[in-house]
Amino acid sequence: MSNHALVTRLRERLGDAAVLTDTDVTDAYSRDMMPLADSGKPLAVVLPSDVEGVQAVVKACAEFEVPIVPRGAGSGLSGAANAIDGCVVLVLTKLDQIVEIDEGNRLAVVQPGVVNLDFRNAVEKHGLFYPPDPSSYDWCTIGGNLSTNAGGLCCVKYGVTTDSVLGLEVVLADGSVLKTGRRTVKGVAGYDLARLFVGSEGTLGVITQATVALKPLPQLPSTLVAAFNSTEAAGEAVARVVREGLVPSLMEIMDATSIKAAEAYLKTDLGTSSDCKALLLAQSDSGGEVARKELAVLEQICVDCGADLAYATEDLEEGKMLLQARRVVLTALEMYGVWLTDDVCVPRTRIAELIAGCERISEEVGLRIAVVGHAGDGNMHPTIVYAPDSEEEFARARTAFDAILDVSLSLGGTVTGEHGIGRIKREWLAKEIGEVGIRVHRQIKRALDPGNLFNPGSMFSL
After folding, report:
1. Which letter does DSSP use for residue 206 in this model?
2. Is the per-residue pLDDT at 225 higher than 90?
3. Angle 333-336-338 (CA atoms, 0-180°, nearest 5)?
């Protein structure tokens, strides 16, 4: 059976407008935001608008033995949504309905094409809060967040995407629809299949609907900023916060390179001294006296650990201004070249060692490396800057990227905290989880996808 026959079948089932084959269009759907990851040329890009359309695509591709790469908005940073030659890219952005918001039970049912920010705004009108907040929350989709188990700045208090998932609807490799999970607070009936699919990067099935838990809308945040003349002192402050049981709603760290870049981009002085080596930013969304007490303890910890500056504010606009320095770092680094951001997670007591390791790698490869990250959970984003027109610098950037992963593992960490494995860290997954771990992954993949239909070659190979 020919590929032309498959395209004809897909158009018969979905309509001509939902099946794209013009290479000028399909190329735009062939990769995500990770420059290191390889991508191929898809046979077609399909955009079904309902679960029946997804089923039709899966059944047709299985019959023609053509692989499927599920995709959301393409905001990922691991190559997990990258096309392979001759595949069908299954785009889920038209499944964009918020099916239900249940205020009484604090849950919602949502389709994968809904943009994270739109969903957060919708539930906020009901006095509710959806915690997962990836940095691309204003354009990434819920389906992509589920497939990669995305994190964000609020993970220290609220967890990652999987911590908000109650149940899923998934189209399996034979086209059948699996409904797994629950709508109740508790439930231990059978295997926890919902969480098996969260973070599977489209390798086991296609998520077409999710039931997610919501939180009461938090209070407006109060903000703390603290500056340190050594990363060791900042790291000790983070460790003290953890040991004393404090759970801020946000706790971020910036190294000296990222501070200088943000100041240059914003054309402002963050109030740090010239020898500032690390900046901690924390927030409490507990509100009122509780928030004041939380920040007072945080402030005292920072002072005790040697902070040159520790300042807390309840003013919302001032807090936004302080946090803006953290949010603009990647954009600020574009003043010096293009960037390649890594994603590792280390024990929170070893953050300073990771930053020191990145400083050493920066010297070795001769490239600027800025480190920012979610200090509250140890998830760090060392970002390598290189000249866009230099193949030699790009090669050095790739060397630095892998060296950072090696340092993370040596510190007892993991090679990805929230971006996923995708097509750039396959060998690193094997190093981290070992031979038995890879064998179990392959057994699960073969059980659910015996024809290797879904996203073959992503995460690991069969």
Report:
1. E
2. yes
3. 70
Separation CA 81–CA 136 (nearest Å): 16
DSSP state of 39: -
**Residue tagged 């998830």 (tokens):** 379
CB atoms within 10 A of CB 284: 28
Q: Is 224 left (phi over 0), alpha (psi -120 to 50) or beta?
A: beta
What DSSP character marks residue 454?
A: B
Confidence band (pLDDT; 50, 70, 90) for 4? Answer: confident
Nearest-angstrom CA–CA distance, 154 and 6: 44
Q: How confident is the model at residue 270 (pLDDT cuts 50, 70, 90)?
A: confident
* pTM higher than 0.85: yes
Distance CA 449, CA 444 (A): 8
Alpha-carbon Rg for the chain in angstroms: 23
Q: Where are the alpha helices (DSSP H) in 278-350?
A: 288-304, 316-327, 329-333
Q: What is the pLDDT of residues 404-446, one digit of tens each?
A: 999 999 999 999 999 999 999 999 999 999 999 999 999 999 9
Burial class (CB in 10 A: 0-12, 13-18, 19+), 263: middle
Would you state the pLDDT for residue 35?
82
Residues 6+ apart with CB under 8 A from 251: 156, 238, 241, 280, 281, 282, 283, 374, 375, 376
Residues 6 or more apart from 387 whose CB is under 8 A from it? 337, 338, 393
Residue with tokens 């490396």: 369
Residue 127: what pLDDT?
A: 96
Question: Which pair of tokens denotes residue 230?
Answer: 């050594």
On whether the CB atoms of residues 222 and 249 are closer than 8 A, the answer is: no
